[in-house]
Amino acid sequence: MAEHRVFDVSVRGDEEDARQLLNDPTIAVLDTVDQQRRSLAELLPRPVTELEEQARWVHYPWRRTVARVLGPDGFHRLRLDRNRDKITLDEQRTFRGLKIGVVGLSVGHAIAHTLALEGLCGELRLADFDELDLSNLNRVPASVFDLGVNKSVLAARRIAEIDPYLPVVVFTDGITEASIDEFVDGLDLVIEECDSLEVKLLVREHARRRRIPVVMETSDGGVLDVERFDLDPDRPLLHGLLPDLGPARFSAMTTEEKTAVAASILDPAKITARMAASVPQIGSTLSAWPQLGGDVALGGAAVAAAVRTFGRGESLPSGRRRIDLDALLRAGEDPLARQRDSAARAAVPSQSASGDDADTA
Predict the structure, then answer these.
(1) pLDDT digits (tens, 9 = 90+) for 190-242
(2) DSSP 2
(3) What is this structure's pTM?
(4) Of 251, 250, 225, the residue nearest 238 (C-alpha)
(5) Cα-to-chain-centroid distance, residue 361
(6) Cα angle at 262 between 125 and 147, to 5 degrees?
(7) Run of H or E residues at 19
(8) Which of 156, 242, 275, 349 could bond 2 through an S-S bridge, CB–CB 3.0 to 4.6 Å?
């Protein structure tokens, strides 16, 4: 679990533990609950029961701070109010029933964070064995103070600072044969963003067995893959694009061989020109796949849009989408040119009008 703790002072044990922290001179205290209550009271339509809810104290040990916040109903009502009505209150309650797992917390960090920001789930499970490295800070929204922290723990901490009431379970050993059942059991959706081909297969095999859909975003060219194993439990893994070599063969591959297989999943004819030039260099002049922070942020937005669609029960069929910002920027339109075209067409007399004039003459 995430390392923070929420105290309900109406509960005897919680009250004693909270008082002990509040009296600790080494712990900072942050209390803005009066301002939070004023903001809550100003919402439209005016909340009623939320205004009567008792506030809570939250202990964030990594910040050595105790913060006071609104109770859970008032907190969610105020924090997510600006979602309306792109997300309605009824939809927001529906989304809070979703349990979502995220595997791989580099690209997955942006995705999990966006899901928490928009309130698109009621439980998150985060899996990554790796620790934050300085080389991750081009795309993971963390800081030098977080170096050496497990990536799933880091994401859970950031989410806890957004919403202390959102349950987050972390798997700091990543996904293994020993942990996969616990990770996927009861999930509504799996988001897979890891580098390991073996784990990609393992996650999908277990998700398909349980009829859980899988979503994957690949930052190059904004590729979004959806596999609806809930609707089609016989669907080939990864759209049938991954060679059927078995986990043992993948484990024995060199970096260059794995890179070639990964590139084949993305379709070499459609990856961006710069990525296509980079792929042959991975393992020689490049240590890993190039990834940009902006592309990763776009991935978070794309997956959040997919989760909203899924949660609403709208159509989200299996398949691949591409949200290539570079291509979209090159193909933009000029509203001024459109206005000029409209004006030019309006200035040309219609053929029927010209004929009427001739007859009159």
Answers:
(1) 999 999 999 999 999 999 999 999 999 999 999 999 999 999 999 999 999 98
(2) -
(3) 0.92
(4) 225
(5) 70
(6) 50
(7) helix 12-22
(8) 156
Q: Is 73 exposed, middle or buried (0-12, 13-18, 19+ CB in 10 A)?
A: middle
Q: What is the DSSP letter of 282?
A: B
Helices and strands of the chain, counted as H and E runs: 15, 11
Pseudo-torsion of CA 209, 214, 218, 224, nearest 10°?
A: 130
Q: Cα–Cα distance between 284 and 281 in angstroms, integer? A: 5
The encoded tokens of residue 223 equal: 């590729």
**Amino acid present at 344:** A
Whether a cis peptide bond, with omega within 30° of 0, leads into 73 is no
pLDDT (average), residues 99-124: 98
Lowest pLDDT segment from 31-35, 220-224, 237-241, 259-263: 259-263
> What is the β-pairing status of strands 99-103 and 65-69?
unpaired
Question: Tokens for 180?
Answer: 């996969």
- Per-residue pLDDT tens digits for 297-346: 999 999 999 999 999 999 999 999 999 999 999 998 899 998 998 999 99
183/324 Cα distance (integer angstroms): 32
